[in-house]
Design a protein that fits this description.
Length: about 750
Amino acid sequence: MNLTLLERACAACGISTEYRDVWGKTHRVPADTCRALLAAMGVAAGSDAELEQALAAREARDWRRVLAPVLVVRADAPELAVPVTLPAPALGRRHSWSLVEEQGARHGGEFEPAGLPAIGERRISGAGFVRFALRLPAVPPPGYHRLEIGALDAPGEARAAAPLIVVPARCYLPPGMANGRVWGPMVNLYALRSERNWGIGDYTDLRGVMELAARCGAAVVGVNPLHALFPHDPEHASPYSPASRQLLNVLYLDPEGVPDFAECEPARERLASAEFQARLRAVRGAERLEYRAVAELKFEILERIYTHFRDRHLARGTERAAAFRAFQQAGGESLRLASLFYALQEHLGASDARVWGWRSWPEPYRDPRTPEVAQYAREHVERTEYHDYLQWNAELQLDAVGKRSLELGLRVGLYQDLAVGVDPGGAEAWGAQSLYAGAVSIGCPPDDFNLKGQSWGLPPLLPDQLTAAAYAPIVALLRENMRDAGALRIDHVMGLMRLFWVPAGELPARGAYVSYPFEDLLGIVALESQRNLCIVIGEDLGTLPDGLAERLRAAGVLSYRLLYFEREPDGAFRAPQRYPAQALAAVSTHDLPTLRGFWQGRDLDLRSALKLFPSEELRQRQIVERAQDRARLLVALEAEKLLPPGASVHAIPGPEVTHDFMVAVHRFLARTPCRLLMVQPEDLFGQLDQVNLPATTAVEHPNWRHRLPLELEQWEMDERWRSFCSALNAERGPLAAPAPAPVRAPDAT
């Protein structure tokens, strides 16, 4: 079958022209969607002539390169065969190759292209090009290396060069975890109450949860994404729509835990004042998290501490000042641009709240490389360094959490979460605009829980640009998020293989899947996992591409298994022994109802009230299905002899969910062979509403604003917590003595 020009262009750019939804129905992608996505990739697609030209230019680019922009090979590959492309006249000339390993070792040799078997030929603008496989003697060890090729008779010519990344076959798994099963709490840090925090959970609270977990038999503490948000607009609260995934959320700073606080008399006096203490009591006692009030309190004190730091340390060149300068240097360009972004946003938006995000800034400031931005940076060093200072202290406080988990001997320790994307108006998108597609959002087609589909408002990374950058942005992202973690959850792990792109202004159902260099990206995840001694969990909910589950399993990535979705073909809940061992198990997640909310149908009530059902027929069907699910869950518990006292499969209990029922459901999951079991405090303490209701805003539902009912200091004395710990320790078995803390590999140069 002959492909149309549009189909050929889509195939060349990795755009699928059809997709299958969760119900098995195939959808043809509209032609205008295809053209919009091509345009977002920088491919002119307005006419057949433009498409012809774009396809020709793409082919010419690929054949005129001597080496690909980056080469990724498996460490267990039987040989290293590198594709090399040369103009036909160069085939008879002697060439040399040079491989420089990451640690400095050098290897080299000579070859004559004419003596190697060709694997492809092409004529571009009348000139001939030949591609062949250059076989090198051995595959170097895992790491980031460099390959160079050049003609021997042209020493003045520039040599072709490309990064050569050698990756391991599998991700890291700690010693003793191959057959071990552990559990721990999965906390939303902002939701934590404590006697000492300032109305929002902070890094000191996270350390406290780590210590509590260790005392109570847990081996892991999970947390929501800690990515940097928007200090100028603290109400922009979703941790999955961050300003930057390489920096930390400074609203989680504990001001009193910053070393300069103890030296800063103005900050201590302000904190002790009656007026400040009254405001502090108000945010601590608020039913919902009041982001703006919390931010005003924290930044008022942090500003004073920073002024003291400049006067006491930077001005005098103290040891602490030297540590700060070293942090700035290590942060490099990404830190510099992010802090510059925050300072500019404060400056440009000070008099107009509509100036939100770099795309609304005056034109000269929208590109970080303009003379106007450079001038601002020179004239506002103190303000940009304020944001460096906040990041520095956030990193120090999170580092303390990671170190504490090692001291406690936790088998996993801190489990962090990597969001799938960034806010289009934020620091990361501003500083690396060439990496992101414009006028497009990632999302997902309709499914059972989001019947209209979703468009998340996050710009996708451009596959070609990622490759051109030799995957450096991905490497940096993984390192930053694995540094203090014993486990990392990759949100929407399908994004390593494909993402669903939705053109601006279109319904999600009119989107299309775009492919990514999956094997390369998965290999880099495994390499950074091994170097950082970090387990990888892939959030693989939803419609999976064919073959993805098998590849993730072979690479040692843990699957993400939720009770609500683990079903047999007839709808029955899957028995514990039928769960996979290479997985994390949990009842629910932030985008789904709590256990109490699921049982009571609270999510169905909310979606009905907010008109999120596309039809009354679907609403009624899900109401009936939920009633069936309640019966199915009781049957599953009965099969495991876990029905709580007084419960019966013959009489569905009323809307109230007892604590015994909560424990029974978690014991059910604890019996699975899954390596990790995560428990949400929202379930433990019987919270009704889910953390986030997709397809809504904070006006419609208090997303990311729920707070836990009990202060952290009281958990260990609470009978609900104690009975949960006792039950899960009994089901999962006693913890073995922790192995000595391993030493992480240094960052690549």
